[in-house]
Design brief:
Layout lengths: L4 H10 L4 H12 L15 E3 L2 E3 L3 E3 L10 H4 L6 E7 L12 E4 L3 E4 L8 H15 L3 E5 L4 H10 L6 E5 L8 H4 L2 H14 L4 E5 L5 H16 L4 E4 L3 E4 L7 E6 L3 H15 L4 E5 L5 H9 L4 E4 L1 H6 L3 H15 L5 H4 L2
Parallel strand pairs: 3-4, 3-14, 4-7, 7-8, 8-9, 9-10, 10-13, 13-14
Antiparallel strand pairs: 1-2, 5-6, 6-12, 11-12
Helix pairs in contact: 5-7, 7-8, 10-12
């Protein structure tokens, strides 16, 4: 399956399955792909919180929830991979249906953070991460600071970085999670045991009751010298087809919320912290817009679902064409 025809055909067939079944089958099919490692043009790289990445395009959290597939997913051309989110103890997630497609290249999920627990997850990554050939980041989540820090400690030496996910719609009592006192306690604990670069994943700044809490937390994160912000997680929406009646919206419709959050973050933190942009990145033009608003990396997920396994290679190829048309030899030349 090294040529373009069979992966494209398989992707079309997967679209006929229910979303969760298609995802599971897709992960199995990725193991059969042998596309060869992507060697992006020299200019398609940036210095980031994970070192110099070529390309500065990552797989967002949620695609590989168990950490079992990172070595295979790296073949799709990513510059880095985020696995998880994982919690301290195993979680089965919500009952089905828990993910649906929407028009306009969108998904709504209420997965409920299904994962095997930190011990199995760390074991899986200890095997797969060294084989990936690119930095692997673990996404961790939890109901309280102590649980999150326990997950972080368990991953010591296993991954290149850790993304702290406090923004999943599956986490209850979001206002309490983002409260200044609780968040400051989390940051204090993380700083006291810090062993690798850390990113904080935040929600879109669309919920009035959360907005000020999140921006205050970002300031605390940056003031403590932590490296990165990942913006944004999914947008909570109503969805009657899901067992929960609501879920998190991702894909094309999330893009404007992500861009607005990037603008807010750059206004708040300047250049004192790096940003990973995620939300509706489907094309080179989408990626370039995020880079120009201050992102040092972009992440994709829903684009992989709708555009297939060659989407990262297409974005890289098109970025190279855009640079050439501008007379630039590297991304760094055209960024602020």
């Amino acid at each position: 399956m090294s040529g373009p025809i069979l992966p494209s055909l398989a992707h079309k067939l997967l679209r006929l399955l229910p979303p969760e079944d298609a995802h599971r089958a897709g992960l199995r099919l990725v193991r059969l792909l042998r596309p060869g490692r992507l060697e992006p043009p020299e200019g398609i790289q940036l210095k980031t919180w994970l070192g110099r990445l070529a390309p500065p395009i990552g797989l967002a959290a949620g695609f590989d929830k168990t950490g079992e597939s990172v070595a295979h997913l790296s073949r799709l051309g990513f510059g880095y991979l985020v696995a998880g989110s994982v919690t301290l103890n195993p979680r089965p997630g919500n009952r089905r249906p828990r993910i649906v497609r929407r028009r306009g290249e969108a998904l709504v999920n209420a997965m409920g953070l299904p994962n095997p627990g930190i011990d199995v997850f760390a074991k899986n990554l200890s095997i797969g991460a060294p084989l990936a050939g690119v930095p692997v980041v673990a996404s961790i989540a939890g109901a309280d600071p102590e649980e999150i820090v326990a997950c972080y400690e368990r991953l010591r030496g296993v991954v290149a970085g850790v993304e702290v996910n406090l923004s999943s719609p599956s986490l209850r009592d979001a206002v309490a999670i983002w409260s200044e006192e609780r968040f400051s306690h989390l940051v204090e604990l993380l700083v006291s045991v810090k062993w690798c670069p850390l990113a904080l994943k935040i929600p879109p700044l669309a919920r009035a009751e959360l907005r000020n809490h999140v921006l205050r937390a970002v300031k605390i994160w940056v003031d403590n010298g932590l490296e990165s912000i990942t913006a944004v997680n999914t947008l909570p929406v109503s969805e009657t087809r899901l067992s929960t009646g609501f879920g998190g919206l991702s894909g094309r419709p999330l893009n404007p919320y992500m861009l607005e959050t990037l603008r807010e973050l750059r206004s708040l933190i300047g250049g004192n912290c790096e940003i990973n942009a995620v939300g509706g990145i489907f094309s080179a033009e989408d990626a370039l817009q995020a880079f120009r608003l201050g992102a040092s990396t972009v992440q994709v997920y829903t684009a992989l679902v709708y555009r297939g396994p060659r989407v990262v290679r297409q974005i890289v190829a098109d970025l190279a064409k855009i640079l050439a048309s501008m007379g630039a030899s590297s991304l760094e030349e055209i960024l602020p």
